[in-house]
Amino acid sequence: MDRKAEEAKAILKKYGQEHLLNHYDSLDEKHKKELLEQINEINFELINSLYKNTDKEPKKQEDEITPIDYLDKYKLNDMYKYYENIGKKAIKEGKLAAVTMAGGQGTRLGHNGPKGTFDIGLDSHKSLFELLADNLKEEGNKYGVTIPWFIMTSRENNKATIEFFEKHKFFGYQNNKNIFFFIQGELPMVDTEGKILIGEDGLIKQAADGHGGIYESLVKNGMTKIMRHMGIEWVFIGGVDNCLVKMVDPVLMGIAIDRNVTVACKSVVKANPHEKVGVFCKRNGKPNVIEYSEITEDMAEATDENGELLYGESHILCNLFSVDAIERMGANPLPYHVAYKKATYMDKDGNIVVPDSPNAYKFEAFLFDAFGSVDDMAVLRVKREEEFAPVKNADSAGVDCPKTARELYKKYYHLD
Ligand code: UTP
């Protein structure tokens, strides 16, 4: 073993992860170098402490949960035009960019390839990426601008994503001029004994660090710097899998500017009090999202004097941030949540094991955990049928699947 490998061995010994070098000698030079780089970059202290906490979700029971104020887009009356005009002006001045988070694994959908390349079955056979591109181009045209588009991929799907865009001539966008790709962060996966897994390539098995990794990735990859250089002040961040997402919304933007908040989020009202979605709330006085599993039955059903659910505003991953807010959020680490997943790995004898049930912990940060770092944000209720058609599951699940998304899309655009 060379000097660098010996140094890596010493690091691993300290954290009980020496097995990661078991196959080092059989790797080619490129992989040897990559493995040593991984070992130098990984925060083993963090991984070991995350493993120790795998049986305990962060303690939240003592938090004080209260309802959050929201505006209803269709009950703004005269204020609708007022906010819209403020937002329109800022969009025309080129102050808005869109970010699409496309680094997820899309395990529930089970599509072979990045989720954005998925064809939801419209007659046009357009992919999710193309539907999003159509929306951005159409909106940009309304205001005489090209909305810069930033796409977050993962190390796993980055190449396939860029190849897809190349094949489709970037849907009219110009690479590195008004479309930018960047790769999100990763964390190692660990087995039930706390040992980090080795992947099929002999390197450390890593997985994307969740959509909460967006802030740090935007900053670390120099995207916020590019944004500032382009004069962008506001950034809409959304998922790749909502084919009705409206990334350019002058009303939302006008509200953020007029109310002087750094984050403005869209919500749709829960389909029923017990729908399994996270809802906006205040946690210890700060904006937050509470998950359905955390909410009591009484809270889920509680209504205000107008009969509206007190905790009824679902978080749909449609959020607008100031560039300042992104940079601040990117500087503060978020808590990681643990998921137990199936992960193919290389065992100690060098055999590739493809498990048929979950075998490893994956650590993910959630985007909304950063909301608590702002004092106030605006929540705007929009119409589900206009803005929310997610593709999460395969058709067999019957909900949030290609079939339901296709129907909603067709209805909205009168395609039948
Ligand atoms: P989901 O939480 O629905 O995850 O992501 P997913 O990866 O698409 O699907 P499952 O859970 O494996 O079935 C919501 C949005 O956040 C993005 C996804 O690409 C999607 O647009 N995301 C999620 C990331 O960009 N990175 C991540 O690490 C996780």
Structure class: alpha/beta
The portion of residues forming beta strands comes to: 15-25%
Q: Looking at the structure, what is the overall shape?
A: globular
Gyration radius, rounded: 22 Å
Largest sheet: 8 strands, mixed
**Termini, distance in Å?**
66 Å
| Count of all domains | 1
CATH topology: Spore Coat Polysaccharide Biosynthesis Protein SpsA, Chain A
Given this structure, which CATH class is correct? Alpha Beta
CATH architecture: Alpha-Beta Complex
Low-confidence stretches: none
Distinct ligands: uridine 5'-triphosphate
Task: Name the strands of the widest sheet in spatial order.
Answer: 2-18-10-13-9-3-4-5
- As an assembly, this protein is single chain
Explain what the structure shows.
The protein is an alpha/beta fold and 416 residues long. The protein has a single domain, classed as Spore Coat Polysaccharide Biosynthesis Protein SpsA, Chain A (Alpha-Beta Complex). It is built from 13 helices and 18 strands. It has helices at 3-14, 29-41, 44-52, 78-92, 128-143, 158-167, 214-220, 223-229, 250-258, 297-301, 323-331, 384-387, 402-412, and strands spanning 65-66, 71-72, 96-101, 149-153, 179-183, 186-188, 190-191, 206-208, 234-239, 263-269, 279-283, 286-290, 313-322, 337-341, 345-346, 352-353, 360-364, 378-381. Strand 4, helix 6 (158-167) and strand 5 form a beta-alpha-beta unit. The model has no long low-confidence stretch (mean pLDDT 96). Uridine 5'-triphosphate (UTP) is lined by residues 101-108, 115, 152, 184, 208, 210-211, 239-241, 317, 392.
